[in-house]
Automatic annotation (TrEMBL):
The keyword Transmembrane applies. PANTHER family: MACROLIDE-EFFLUX PROTEIN, MAJOR FACILITATOR SUPERFAMILY (MFS) PROFILE DOMAIN-CONTAINING PROTEIN. GO terms for cellular component: plasma membrane. The chain crosses the membrane at residues 12-36, 42-62, 166-187, 221-240, 260-281, 288-307, 319-344, 356-375, 381-400. This is MFS transporter. It comes from Bacillus safensis. Coiled coil: none annotated. Residues 1-404 form the Major facilitator superfamily (MFS) profile domain. One of its GO terms (molecular function) is transmembrane transporter activity. Keywords: Cell membrane, Membrane, Transmembrane, Transmembrane helix, Transport. It is a multi-pass membrane protein. InterPro entries: MFS, MFS_dom, MFS_trans_sf. It is found in: Cell membrane.
Amino acid sequence: MIAILKQPRFLTFCLAQLISRFGDGLTTIVILYIVGTTSDDPLLIGFVLFCQYSPMFFFGLIGGVAADHFKKHHIMIAADLFRALILIGMIFSINHPVYVIMLVFLSGIGSAFFYPARSSYIPVVVGEKNITEAMGVSQSIYSVMQIAGPGIAGLLLLFFSPTILLMIDILSYSLSACLILLTAVLVKKKNKKEEEISSSSSKEKQWTAIKLGLKVVFQSAPLAFLIILLTQVMFIAGIFNTTSNSILLHEFQVTGFHFGMIEAFSGIGAVIGSILGPYLLGKLKPGYILITTTIFMGLWMTAILPIEFFETLFGLSPVYLWMFGIGLMNAFLNVPISSLFLGLTPNAYRGRAMSILQMFSNFGIILGLIIAGIFSKYIGVIWITAISGGVLLAISLLSMRMKGFAALLNVTKKNKDTSTATQLEV
């Protein structure tokens, strides 16, 4: 894996991905903070997350088709510059949360075109023989920034205003576009015909590949069971993503300093979990880790009820601990997801399987965002969080009695590099 980084064209491509993913994490935290502090309506936070996730669900396939019919680096550069332009608009709309939310949706459309092009550009950069190794590095970067990006953003929010952070984000997307252009120049210098060969698939083949991917995934009982389970889990995660920021900003009324610190603590928990995850996978079966984590996460979410009481006695310390635990279990959930899907999916179908997984995961998250946004106005964000935790606990316990769970326990982990699979946002 280290040897492939010695290729200059792949190194610049990885740096572009690293910077772009940092920009994504920075945008998410800043927008949630802006909307949360300019409005006390939890429904608006739900709309922010809905606008963040829904474009990938609705436009991801269109972005994939575009990546197969146009030069991929052109799409990535255009998407980065488009998202940078959207952020300029956000700076001028920072006191108008509705306008900010609309711009989030437009930025999400840019991401829906960027990520299919990025994934399919990897064979162009490294060649067919190095795809597996390159995907490992690429997904490792994705995983690290998925955890570290929001944490770094939380720390930056301690010292800088949201406007300054948006300007940093604009710079990150601009640098990413420049590095992608440099990558394309290096690729062309290495092999002028390489990109033309890699992008020659037709529209008919694209649809055939999608159908084959769906067939492979849903004809596998363990994979189908895991997707159904994860759709429900991500439904609960969507509820939490909506309510957690509202709990911090409205219920506990944390300052910008503590909001950043609490987000950082959650990120620290996720980093620790990502370090411990591979060790636990060497000791336990992925299926056990997955179901145990969902059970504990359900219990941990219901613990928000006593946390509300303890906060009045001990200040924000219990809140810090609660968010740290959420970040820790988030990483424990991602590790077995990665391991199970890599172990269960044939090599030739892994990309499509991950796309299907992400589609259903985003569908669950979107439903959770909608439900949380509606019902939190009537029963409160704390109670909707606790209830969703109870639902997650019930789903986890019932899943242990299903035949598909027994099939998961028979899985032999074929790929020990858990960082090569897609990480999901909880």
